[in-house]
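quick one: guanosine-5'-diphosphate bound model?
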Amino acid sequence: TELDRIRNFSIVAHIDHGKSTLADRLIQLTGTVAQRDMKEQILDSMDIERERGITIKANTVRIDYPAKDGKTYVLNLIDTPGHVDFAYEVSRSMRAVEGSLLVVDASQGVEAQTLANVYQAIDAGHEIVPVLNKIDLPAAEPERVKEQIEDVIGLDAHDAVLISAKSGLGIPEVLEAIVTRLPAPKGDRNAPLKAMLVDSWYDPYLGVVVMIRVMDGVIRKGDRIKMMQTGAIYGVDKLAVLKPQMVDIEELGPGEIGIWTGSIKQVRDTRVGDTITTEKKGCETPLPGFKPAQPVVFCGLFPVDANDFEDLRDAIEKLQLNDASFSSEMETSAALGFGFRCGFLGLLHLEVIRDRLEREYDLDLITTAPSVVYKIFLRDGTMQELHNPADMPDLTHVDHIEEPRIKATIMVPDEYLGDVLKLCQDRRGVQLNLTYAGNRAMVEYDLPLNEVVFDFYDRLKSITKGYASFDYQLTGYAEDYLVKMSILVNDEPVDALSMMVHRDRAEMRGRAMVEKLKDLIPRHMFKIPIQAAIGGRVIARETLSAMRKDVTAKCYGGDATRKRKLLDKQKAGKKKMRQFGKVEIPQAAFISALKMD
Ligand code: GDP
Ligand code: MG
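yep, here:
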């Protein structure tokens, strides 16, 4: 395809502003997918995306569009996730395209992730076309939102495209805007092959699938190519474009996006951001690599059944191929055996990865209490990073502890501002800035990451009835009075539940934890004390009373099936439990216990 007939773009927006629905309409109107195969949010192909109604992975589709000028264009569309935990996925995708459609819900206006995503597009040097969606809604105020885009983002919005992705209104205008207002890619067909490895995933039939964006040169089926960073060499067995299912193609030239496979054995050979060239007469200098993602939340993942350890290792390796932003390292725990310490970009990211491991690889996992990374400065002048509270050195060696801090940007309607300020204050926040954009306040806070990571977003949503939006960035480390709080169940410490807390908040968190655990741990035949302690000092305590009767006793009479069902259910529940000394703790306890109400 000639360069001037190609347009590559991403769709960026705050969550729920309608990116995926717009992608649907573009796919539908151009007949890319047959009407009978069309479904809502067609690009969100993972079960977990469809269930949660959110986009997690950036998804690509190639569209043929016959434009008003009589020429047919190839459009490569990348739909991106909106949640802050997946910002890395967005930044990576943006490097593969030249333009962005900035979708803003005309009834909501600019939100925190609208800003975060549009700044990423600007950083990537994109041409940006603003699109105001949901103008079918009575509450839509396109003129006000245009002004807001100009005031808050500083982007010319006078010729924003007004659409309803739901009804299809304005979609032909979006297609024309893509062709006339976004730039064509640049590249040299006669230069050596230079392609960017944008994404990769494991397919049970095809093996490792690699998505690339060609910068210069041409890649053909049968070529022998080299990954510049890893030095690995493979033959191109299959070359295809995504429409969105794979359609084989003979070659991909400059500006084109597609996938290839080549019986890649070593999952580690494919690194997102790597440059791909031909084995012989390849290009000299690689593309600038991607900035690696920095995991901020760590937790342990252990198989419920110790025999599944190798399967877990294999599953993690395959999933990492598809998500370069999560890290892993082997870990052993006295209570849980062999597992992995994994790093994530946030708690939603953690939940998604755990879910995918369980579903896509059929594993039962135990997740230990998540923790941020602390810097422990020792009296001997050295510093060590603490990824796991269980590894906290003896206090007599510790000089001081630093924790990660963030700059949070929260946008909220005026009437909820007071509650938001209180929430931030309660979480040890320091206010940095407060400005207004129309009747929405935009407030910036300096906050400790560990106060934000677990349930801040949920709390914020609930106190503002869903109207607040939130985004954050890591800023650095600062010293504070932090201690390790241990949890003892039946007088035995449960390492997987120990956590770092601020000293002033330890009693409150300790009390909340033991109360939660009392509800989460099933009764046993004996009394179980549940305690929170700092060093040797108990700061909170609850007692779980002993079980009096057999569970089946409440099925009086002799309904055998009901009795059996109850026992089956108990057995299934047991699978998700772990023995700590004499006590069984259900896996749900490890994360639930940390969420504060
Ligand atoms: P995304 O998170 O940006 O991908 O947003 P989705 O495309 O998943 O849309 C979020 C919700 O808004 C869904 O329930 C859509 O049906 C709805 N929606 C999308 N576009 C429109 C629109 O033009 N009008 C109305 N009324 N609802 C829309
Ligand atoms: Mg979406």
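The longest strand covers residues 398-413.
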